[in-house]
Design goal:
Elements (H helix, E strand, L loop, with lengths): L2 H4 L4 E7 L2 E3 L4 E3 L11 H11 L2 E8 L15
Parallel strand pairs: 1-4
Antiparallel strand pairs: 2-3
C-alpha cells in the first residue's frame, strides 16, 4: 500500500522501501518528491507519515546509491 492510502491507519510493523530513480538529469532517491527543493518539507512530511504508521517496528530498505538527502548520514 502506498503512503497516501496508509494515512490514518496503524500497523504493527511497516516496511518503507527507498528506490533510486532517474529525474532526467541524474539518479535521485525516491524519498525526494519531484521538484521538492531543500530542505525538502513535502518529502519529509510524507516520509514522517510512512514511519509513524507503525506501532512497534519500522524497517527501511534502500540502495546505498544514490544517497538520500533526507536521511543523510543516519545509520538506520
Amino acid at each position: 500500500m502506498n503512503v497516501h492510502k496508509a494515512k490514518g491507519k496503524q500497523f504493527d510493523g511497516v516496511i518503507v522501501v527507498r528506490e533510486a530513480r532517474h529525474d532526467g538529469r541524474k539518479m535521485v532517491s525516491s524519498f525526494v518528491w519531484w521538484e521538492d527543493e531543500p530542505p525538502y518539507h513535502r518529502s519529509r512530511k510524507i516520509l514522517r507519515v510512512a514511519i509513524t504508521r507503525a506501532k512497534i517496528h519500522t524497517l527501511m530498505l534502500g540502495p546505498i546509491y544514490p544517497a538520500c538527502p533526507i536521511i543523510g548520514q543516519h545509520k538506520l
